[in-house]
# Entry
Amino acid sequence: MKNQLSIIIPILNEADNIISLLNHLNTNASLENLSEIILVDGGSTDGTTEKVNAYLTSSDLNAFKSKIKLLNAPKGRAKQMNLGAKHATGNILYFLHADSFPPKNFDQLIIKQITNGNQAGCFRLQFNSNHWWLRLASWLTQFSWRACRGGDQSQFITKALFEEIGGYDESYIIYEDNILINELYARKEFVVINKKLVTSVRLYEKHGVWKLQYHFWAIYVKKWFGASAEELYSYYKKHIVK
# Structure
């Protein structure tokens, strides 16, 4: 069986980013390695889906665009990503945030890991900022420590392993990436590819680096001490997405 990626991108009000990301994927991967690109919208109200549809129906239709599917799902990244996985035909699932841009030849890098027997993993992270703390946090993501992981680094996983685990836990509106990562670490099924994925600092710019970092740490610690999915989401809504 030929290794192919199904790229799954949950989107919600990403009109400013989504076309740039699609163009980036087109120029940084080999078409033959992509089974499809699945965009799963959670109810955008800013014209995201209209922008995607205009992109797909533009006169310069090409082989890359023919691989893009736009689906609709209830709001919530876990639900959106699980729906995307259900429609995926590739044997490798690659979950990607709409404001994260993977490195050149990311498809080949992922397939190489799968070929070598590594069933799941991510890339190093680089924030598009020169703030010293974010540069340090980016540097730390090259290491395999569990504390250095997060959904912004993207997530590749074989479809077989994803289904064996049961996919993303839909009871979590936030922290769903970490729940899956915890399971992969428990199984010793995780590798960090030493290439940088560049992600946006838009939330840090909105809230301030230290304030947002404090709230992220608070969520991590609350989960460590047994907070429920509802408690984590309540804290997130109160302090981060008001």
Summary: The mean pLDDT is 94. The longest strand covers residues 191-199. Strands lie at 5-11, 34-41, 68-72, 92-95, 100-101, 120-127, 155-158, 191-199. Residues 201-242 form one domain.
